User: What shape does this take?
Amino acid sequence: MPDGKTKKNVKKVVLAYSGGLDTSIILKWLQTTYGCEVVTFTADLGQGEELEPARQKALLLGIKKENIFVEDLREEFVRDYVFPMFRANALYEGQYLLGTSIARPLIAKKQIEVAEKVGADAVAHGATGKGNDQVRFELTYYALKPDVTVIAPWREWDLTSRTRLIEFAEKHQIPIAKDKRGEAPFSVDANLLHTSSEGKVLEDPGHEVPDYVFSRTVDPEKAPDKPTTITVDFERGDAVAIDGKKMSPAALLKHLNDLGRANGIGRLDLVENRFVGMKSRGMYETPGGTILLAAHRGIESITLDRGAAHLKDELMPKYAELVYYGFWFAPEREMLQAAIDKSQEFVTGRVKIKLYKGNVTIVGRESKDSLYDQDLVTFEEGTVAYDHRDAEGFIKLNALRLRTLGQRRRKLKLD
Assistant: This one.
């Protein structure tokens, strides 16, 4: 534990608490192992579950009413985390839309805020010792409260099997849902941006994902035979309206999720490289995010200068890696964000999209700040701003080094 602290001198800890079996066990384990006061923090990130049961379960487990914090973070999540990330068109390893990664710094930030409010000297999370989430939580904790004590039960306790977890729960009278008594077929994480499924039946990358794993999208083959056409309006890189109707960030993403679900959009079967060094196979469903990414690239295509657009594409993999690894509050991510946000100054306009059986197709784009000049590109007689004869000198200058190299090759052959 940091700063040489022992288990005995942790007086109060703020736990990231979902109300599920694992975090309920952690709650009781913290009380019995550390003998400390436990404060629970539960975040509503649009995971689609009622949060009142989490509050009631915390009360049942002996947590004081004033030590239970439940907060609706949906708007903040989309406005301050999801949208800035989508301005960068971020994809980890070219595919993953970072749905879990982007949620962790917000939860951890709020934990630290609660810790400051209640005078807690420690924070705790339920991430395992093999995954990325432990890194994401803890890098944020330390960035925002450098002297905080972090408790990571999965790295400390001996409850290393489902059987031992159940035994601990029964010993301490922790309610167990019937389906939790058996081995879970896979684990799920959900928020307003995505649902991810990992483990168990998904661990063999050679086997196709079973149909029952999908929860957020219809099978593309069973989606409607007629395409759905929508428009998405952008202002300075952020989506602000669908079909001309203004919406808040969270409401807009939810509406895109509904459209994506109905049309089978956003499924991804991925083998990725975890930050801790191993490969892992996951199944992700990001219906609204998949539409949003395509729409954003669509409006950028007519409003971004080539140099800015290409530089953004060069920066994107690094930005995505920083988000995936948990460096949201690191100076390099903030530096990249400043550059990306500057590029979005004129990314304003409307994109027309067709959604059809898992596909997102851009069919129209328009903007008052468009750089597209039809007079310049037309094959018909157009403006005098472009003289075809100018291309000859342009080509010869660009070919100069290639001609020089060619002359050397010819000389070597002659010799």
About this structure: Residues 1-6 have pLDDT under 50 and may be disordered.
